[in-house]
Write a structure and sequence with these properties.
Elements lengths: L1 H9 L14 E3 L2 E3 L13 E5 L17 E9 L11 E4 L9 E4 L7 E2 L16 E10 L5 E7 L9 H4 L7 H6 L2 E5 L6 H9 L21 E4 L16 H7 L7 E3 L9 H13 L7 E5 L6 H9 L6 E5 L1 E5 L12 E4 L2 H14 L9 E2 L5 E3 L9 E3 L2 E5 L5 E2 L4 H9 L1
Parallel strand pairs: 12-13, 13-14, 14-20
Antiparallel strand pairs: 1-2, 3-10, 4-8, 4-11, 5-6, 5-8, 6-7, 8-9, 15-16, 15-18, 17-21, 19-20
Length: about 425
């Protein structure tokens, strides 16, 4: 998918929607959603989990396990009038190793203690009054560390940990970037309760400086190791129904493709039963870019073509060999990889629509990012055309020649 996205933009694409296909595994009659998590949610615990299924959610995906870490932030404070709702304050205990007195303002401006009989914040304010927030460190899907700082522990806080790092973050940028979320038990609905669940009841005073060679006490934190994430089973045509349905109301979409689906056992049904019906819907105004699998003979392409009958789609072969962005010298990672042609062709379609029009047929177009072709037999330097259907052969390391009668009709219909 990543290589298809790159090929799309490299060859003229400007806007792209990606709808993920995931097929749940079934183990012993139980459906496995494939989502990595740190445990089983309960009323009195906190569980960290990946927002999306996949092995990349596991803490050890990039090598040695890198758990999600929640660390306490201390900050001395003497002005509390302008603190937001949901703030949490702490007064250290008189005796070391015991619990602090916590004060929270919930949804009001009045701070009260977490004692059995709540008491207001003393006036004048204690000299050792601390404002408590938390910092979360988590590994992103790209292998870079993500930092979420100054999060609150009360649901009234504008940066509440359970809201910023929820399964459906309220901010659009968080919904795009955040890879993990927290499931906070129903019994931890106050800031003091959540603080105790994360860091216990023993206070570590940051103002205490130990006498060398003694080391400072570690800052309170809790780690969550995520396991159990997997990439699911091989998808079938039924698994494409929901992802394609998400695209139906998006009027910006004119070209639809399923890069790499041709390697699956059910690839023909994915095209015939999923992709083609999607673009043939009434008033859909879309075309489908189809593909066959890699390493096929001309007769195999003919067999795929014979099973397709739609004026709203065009089939392109073979796969394209392109540089591998993950290749490293001195490793076994190959320098070149074969990728499906649909990403390249979608970009060329988009470029043609922008520079010319949808009614103008595709002719010779430069392919960006291509080295050679993944072909098992010599290919003609032209489109191999069959009445009402066409297979467009990408015929040299630098250009693609298109199109047949079928493709022209699809473009006109869109």
């Amino acid at each position: 998918m990543a290589m298809a996205v790159k090929a799309f933009f490299d060859n003229g694409g400007a806007m792209l929607y990606v709808s993920r296909v995931f097929a749940n595994k079934a183990t012993g009659g139980t459906i496995d959603p494939g989502v990595a998590s740190s445990g089983t949610p309960a009323a009195t615990n906190i569980v960290a989990a990946a927002r999306f299924p996949g092995s990349f959610g596991n803490s050890n995906f990039f090598g040695p396990a890198v758990p999600v870490t929640v660390t306490l932030n201390y900050g001395k404070i003497q002005q509390v009038a302008n603190l937001p709702f949901g703030s949490l304050l702490a007064v250290p205990p008189a005796a070391a190793g015991t619990a602090p007195t916590l004060y929270s303002n919930g949804g009001t401006s009045q701070f009260e203690s977490n004692a059995a009989t709540p008491a207001p914040l003393p006036s004048p304010l204690p000299s050792n009054l601390y404002l408590l927030t938390v910092k979360v460190l988590a590994m992103g899907a790209n292998g870079q560390q993500m930092v979420f700082d100054n999060l609150g522990l009360d649901s009234n806080h504008p940066s509440y940990i359970g809201s910023v790092l929820s399964s459906n973050p309220p901010r659009h940028i968080d919904a795009l970037q955040n890879q993990i979320y927290f499931i906070i038990g129903s019994g931890l609905n106050t800031a003091p309760a959540l603080y105790a669940a994360l860091f216990g009841t023993t206070w570590v005073d940051p103002s205490v400086k130990p006498v060398p060679p003694a080391k400072p006490a570690p800052i309170p934190s809790q780690s969550f190791t995520l396991t159990g994430g997997n990439d699911g089973a091989e998808p079938t045509a039924n698994d494409y129904t929901s992802p394609l349905r998400y695209c139906e109301p998006l009027e910006d979409i004119a070209i639809v493709a399923t890069p790499g689906a041709s390697i699956y056992t059910d690839s023909i049904n994915i095209m015939i039963g999923g992709l083609i019906p999607h673009v043939e819907r009434q008033r859909a105004y879309r075309v489908a870019i189809l593909e066959a699998g890699p390493n096929l003979l001309d007769s195999d392409y003919e067999n795929v073509r014979a099973q397709i009958d739609s004026i709203y789609s065009a089939l392109y072969v073979p796969w394209v060999v392109t540089p591998n962005p993950l290749a490293k010298s001195g490793t076994s990672i190959p320098a070149e990889i074969a990728v499906p042609p649909s990403g390249f062709m979608a970009g060329i379609y988009a470029r043609n629509d922008t520079q010319n029009s949808r009614q103008k047929r595709l002719r010779t177009r430069l392919f960006s990012g291509q080295l050679t072709l993944n072909a098992t037999s010599p290919l003609p330097n032209k489109v191999y055309s069959i009445p009402w259907e066409s297979i467009a052969f990408v015929s040299s390391p630098t250009v693609v020649t298109a199109c047949g009668e079928h493709e022209q009709r699809a473009l006109t219909q869109s």
